[in-house]
């Protein structure tokens, strides 16, 4: 039987309190939120904890999450999935007067979608329960027991975000901007940023000039017509 616990870790930078919290609970898997850890604390935790330590830190210390897996609980961790920053950039924030409403229309549907997917296997708990989705404010924690479930989770997340603009996890749609310049320093030709999908168009006094410089700019563009 695997024992799993999750709690807010604010204050666990100090060695004594950290030892008390991590060892008194005697859990096999510990999920921590708001760790406030920096690299030096993470190094200490990895030395103190007998097992695997997975950490995601924010840009400031008043953030961060960690998952601690005790040695011998699993044969090995084969796959770790996270984003480049470890946190959501736009989400439901604590303290917002609309947080309950925003939770119902944004975070809750994801939990419903995951729970309805029978291909996702959560972690079995003592008493017959299953740990799969934990949500609080802007945090969503998903715990699964095998690699196949990870793939199903990612597919469900893609489905959940497919109706957003842009779709969740994909680059934004191509957009168009107009070039503005000071008088006497006109920018006649179009510009493009293919990495961002932005087309910048010049402003002209009549359509014939616009058409002339657009065609000239496109024809003279490097690699025009190549994909």
UniProtKB/TrEMBL annotation:
The keyword Transcription regulation does not apply. GO terms for molecular function: ubiquitin-protein transferase activity. Transmembrane segments: none annotated. Keywords: Transferase, Ubl conjugation pathway. InterPro entries: Endo/exonu/phosph_ase_sf, Endo/exonuclease/phosphatase, HECT_dom, Hect_E3_ubiquitin_ligase. Residues 161-227 form the HECT domain. The active site is at residue 195. This is HECT domain-containing protein. It comes from Muraenolepis orangiensis (Patagonian moray cod).
